[in-house]
């Protein structure tokens, strides 16, 4: 019975379970990757590579499963009326995404805050929203804005702040080959935009070592 509830909840939120692969898609993507291995000068029939096209296809489906998720629905599923109007900060959320230019990973941290306006949201839903947008082909700037807009439009708080710090492998293992550069992006609404003190408090909280 517990399982039934779990399945229903997954379906409701539009989550795709990790083991729920789309067989037709996997077969088609794998066929292309077998061809690509040959074009790269490899022998796709050698033992170590026999299952590689299918593995890559499954990995790619996982790494882009955010397309199947409705991020607003995630928030709507756990909004609670609450008389709390101080900033809520969830910091150091790990992010793994892939740049849409090279399909190479970029990864780092997201720091998110909102100022409740009658409703709070289940804390775990904020990292879930981050993942729903991150598990797509992205640029860091759009990812940052999409997270902000989703929280603002769905929860309608008095303000949202998103800061992301990421390393881009397309800048490290190829191209310009800078190993230590970190890209920071930010997006704000409401009180975080209009009130310098509110924004400064958020920035202080995400840089403070409180634990
Ligand atoms: N603004 C932004 N750029 C990104 C992001 N991820 C990758 N890029 C950049 O996308 C750009 C694509 O530029 P192009 O000149 O078309 O591609 P390229 O010839 O492979 O460029 P190089 O990486 O400089 O070798 C590069 O400058 C990447 O660093 C991102 O999240 N945001
Ligand atoms: Zn890139």
Automatic annotation (TrEMBL):
A Pfam match: GTP_cyclohydroI
UniProt GO BP: one-carbon metabolic process; tetrahydrobiopterin biosynthetic process; tetrahydrofolate biosynthetic process
Catalytic activity: GTP + H2O = 7,8-dihydroneopterin 3'-triphosphate + formate + H(+)
Domain GTP cyclohydrolase I: 31-206
Any one of the GO CC terms: cytoplasm
Record bears the keyword GTP-binding: yes
Pathways involved: Cofactor biosynthesis; 7,8-dihydroneopterin triphosphate biosynthesis; 7,8-dihydroneopterin triphosphate from GTP: step 1/1
Residues that, per the record, bind Zn(2+): 99, 102, 170
Annotated coiled-coil segments of the chain: none
Family note: Belongs to the GTP cyclohydrolase I family.
Descriptive protein name: GTP cyclohydrolase 1
Naturally occurring in which organism (per UniProt): Pedobacter frigiditerrae
Designated gene of the protein: folE
């Amino acid at each position: 019975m517990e399982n039934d509830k779990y399945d229903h909840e997954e379906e409701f939120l539009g989550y795709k379970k990790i083991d729920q692969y789309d067989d037709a898609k996997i077969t088609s993507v794998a066929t292309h990757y077998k061809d690509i291995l040959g074009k790269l000068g490899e022998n796709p029939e050698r033992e170590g590579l026999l299952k590689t096209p299918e593995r890559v296809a499954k990995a790619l489906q996982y790494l882009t499963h955010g397309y199947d998720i409705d991020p607003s629905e995630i928030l709507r599923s756990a909004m609670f009326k609450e008389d709390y109007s101080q900033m809520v900060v969830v910091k150091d959320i790990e992010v793994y995404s892939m740049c849409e230019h090279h399909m190479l990973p970029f990864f780092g941290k997201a720091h998110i805050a909102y100022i409740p306006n009658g409703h709070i949201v289940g804390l775990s839903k904020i990292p879930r929203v981050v993942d729903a947008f991150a598990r797509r082909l992205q640029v860091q700037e759009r990812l940052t804005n999409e997270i902000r807009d989703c929280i603002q439009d769905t929860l309608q708080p008095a303000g949202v702040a998103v800061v992301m710090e990421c390393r881009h492998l397309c800048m490290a293992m190829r191209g310009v080959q800078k190993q230590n550069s970190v890209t920071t992006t930010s997006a704000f609404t409401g009180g975080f935009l209009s009130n310098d003190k509110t924004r400064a408090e958020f920035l202080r909280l995400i840089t403070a070592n409180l634990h």
